Amino acid sequence: MAGLLLCSLSAGAHAEWVKRVTDGIMGTRIVVELWADDRAKGDAAIDAVLVEMRHIDESMSTYKPASEVSQVNAHAADGPMKISRELFDLLVTANEYSRLTDGAFDITYASVGYLYDYRKRVRPDEAAIGKALPAVNYRHVILDEKTQTVRFSQKGVRIDLGGIAKGHAVDGGIAVLQARGITRAFVAAGGDSRIIGDRFGKPWMVGIRDPRAGPGSVITRIPLTDAAMSTSGDYERFFEEDGVRFHHIIDPHTGHSASKVRSATVIGPRAVRTDGLSKTAFVLGPEKAMEIYNRIEDIDAIIVKLDGSVIYSKGLEQLPAP
Ligand code: ADP
Ligand code: MG
Questions:
Q1: Are 67 and 113 members of one domain?
Q2: Residue 234: is its pLDDT beyond 90?
Q3: Which CATH number covers residue 252?
Q4: Which ligand is the nearest neighbour of the Cα of 264?
Q5: Residues 134 and 262 in one domain
Q6: CA dist., res. 279 & res. 298, Å (int)
């Protein structure tokens, strides 16, 4: 016993914060930071989080033709398709967010959304949008719990989980850590993050980026423990033409970029929820979105309006200055 203890001491094993930043999963930056009994255990836990995230990327990316979601897009208009429990549950969740947000969140946005390529500055003309738009409607995605199948009610329907998958992956990463007994951690995939525990009596401080300044500048910092936070911004993936900004959040009713706010941050218990709800403000505008956020019990929100002013949901006390 004494020998064992000496041995681990001489190897320098002691509890510490372990952090890793990884690029290239889900096309975004993954950050994992946690408190571990020793560095080796911390590194192994981070490895397990990344395995989980790669798995979600493989099954849900529409950029990968072999992914489960790509298979659904290719075949679900032909008849019911049996899908994995994980994807089925996520489609049920997506459906719930569509109803919560009056259809502002809608994974069938992709029926039009696939016509945009922000990197190549490609966008559909009015005729192409008009032709594709009838396929945009979450009600076209028909789920059967008994058979665990999905079916599209018509041809032309496509889904894309880009508005919810990162949050889901963050929750998946947190679950992996909890199963290993980790009680203090931060996991982020791009703008979606979640925290378990605190920093020994202090909250984690998470910054909200200033939408019109560089990546380093923040409009405020939020103290968080045991919470998730997602920010959507019109600065993430966009191009401009004649002063109009075309970016990656689509209004399901028009097929155009949804441009009613500059950014929206949602705080809640789980990242899949905060991710799913952060797009709403772009589609519905700050007032209507805030009304919805205030109505949902476990959610808070911070919206940067088009004029740069910031509004807060009812639940947020006076926040500290940045
Ligand atoms: P990030 O991808 O950086 O996490 P967001 O959380 O803001 O950014 O999600 C934006 C993504 O949501 C888009 O790239 C697209 O895949 C998807 N999306 C766009 N419009 C909608 C919409 N109306 N409903 C659901 N998802 C959407
Ligand atoms: Mg997101």
A1: yes
A2: no
A3: 3.10.520.10
A4: 1
A5: no
A6: 17
Pocket test for ligand 1, best of 96, 192, 239, 250 (most atoms within 8 A of CB): 250
What would the pLDDT profile of 28-45 be if each residue is shown by its tens digit? 999 999 999 999 999 999
User: Do 182 and 294 sit in the same domain of this protein?
Assistant: yes
In a domain, residue 320? The reply is no
Nearest alpha-carbon partner for 102 in 298, 263, 291, 249: 291
Q: Are strands 261-268 and 227-233 parallel, antiparallel or unpaired?
A: antiparallel
Q: How confident is the model at residue 320 (pLDDT cuts 50, 70, 90)?
A: low
Question: 3-class DSSP state for residue 77?
Answer: coil
CA of 49 to the centre of ligand 1 (A): 23
| Cβ neighbours for 60, distance < 8 A, ≥ 6 positions apart | 67, 68, 69, 87, 90, 161, 165, 168
Closest atom of ligand 1 to 237 CA is 14
Residues 199 and 242 in one domain: yes
Tell me: do 173 and 248 sit in the same domain: yes
DSSP-assigned states of every residue in 81-98: EE--HHHHHHHHHHHHHH
pLDDT of residue 7: 47
Give the pLDDT score at 318: 59
Same domain for 131 and 91? yes
pLDDT of residue 216: 81
Task: Answer yes or no: is pLDDT of 3 > 80.
Answer: no
Residue 274 placed within a domain = yes
Whether this prediction's pTM lies above 0.85 is answered by yes
Instruction: Kindly give the number of the ligand 1 atom that is closest to the alpha carbon of 163.
Output: 12
Domain that holds residue 235: 14-59+165-312
Statement: residue 22 has pLDDT above 90: yes
- Measure 112 CA to ligand 2 centroid, in angstroms: 19
pLDDT at residue 287 greater than cutoff 80: yes
- Report whether residue 262 contacts ligand 1, using a CB cutoff of 6 Å: no
